[in-house]
Design goal:
Elements (H helix, E strand, L loop, with lengths): L1 H16 L6 E5 L4 E5 L11 E5 L6 E9 L8 E9 L11 E3 L2 H6 L41 E3 L3 E5 L4 E6 H5 L3 E11 L4 E11 L4 E13 L4 E11 L7 H5 L7 E9 L5 E9 L4 E11 L3 E9 L12 E10 L1
Antiparallel strand pairs: 1-2, 2-5, 3-4, 3-6, 4-5, 7-8, 7-18, 8-9, 9-10, 10-11, 11-12, 12-13, 13-14, 14-15, 15-16, 16-17, 17-18
Length: 327
Amino acid sequence: MKLLLLSLSSLIFLFSSNAYSEATVSELHSDTEILVELNGEEGFFEDKKVIVLSKNHKRIIAIGHIDDSEIKDRPGIIKVEIDEMVDKYLIIQGDPVELLDYKLYKEKTVPGFFSLTLKGSERIPAKFKELVYFGVFTSEGHTLDEKEILVSPFQLQYGVTDKFGAKVVNALWLDGYANIGLKYQVMRNKYTKITMNTLGAYKVQEQDWIGQVGGVVTVPSNSKFQSHFMVNVTFDPQYDNANATKDLGLFQDSDIRSITEYITDDWNRVLYGPVYNVELQTFGGTVSHMWIWDTFHMSLGVATKDFTNLSFNREGYYYVYDLFFIF
């Protein structure tokens, strides 16, 4: 019995100490580089992203990429450049190293970090990706992956490619406006993400048209916060008989806004920031919480076009909500 308990204890320790991977830190090569011993692990190719875990605390402590997948005269050793430290613990010899891919997310509980968001053709749940739409802010985010679809009561989006997408606004169709919008990802790297968008709508019976152009620039602050800067310019916003669109508050005014996005450990989002209304020349803002499941998003918040108007109505403070699916 004593031998059986000892064997079980050893097995539990074996699984806990190798909970993520057999690849481990071999040595610290420089201030920003480590050497990793693969121990038979496969798939560690150059430029692939990896995470480093604390062997003592079982937490993700660093994110990096493979800089050299073949060290001369040292078979089974690769060099990893550390891109970001996400915890207070230092990297030490023996810390596990794991490839950053969707397989890891399916097998383990990975906490939410912007550095760990994924993008690609795999059927990855939307909660692990960048936001393509900011919900109650009615502002466009970045592009969908190829063949992905966003469905909400207010709009439909489709990813033509990973960098190019199209959309239609349902409320405008209800008002009789044929419409289509386009989105294009101009830049994406670890420092900046830029996406441009445009929309055009035309009502034949009224010979009335609406146009909108805009863009979003995203700058990561750290692993938990990032900032989005947006400009939306609307042409001909003073259309008549567009009740559905007006009730939703869409395309009424041009604005300049900043959104700070916080990602929780369970991959939900908190979004808040000021808005400058160009037509009214007032400062307002929005704060909201977005709950994200695998495909379903739901956000609820409070907004205002004018901080100084303390009434609770559409001219002062009012609640906002949104929900959408991404498949």
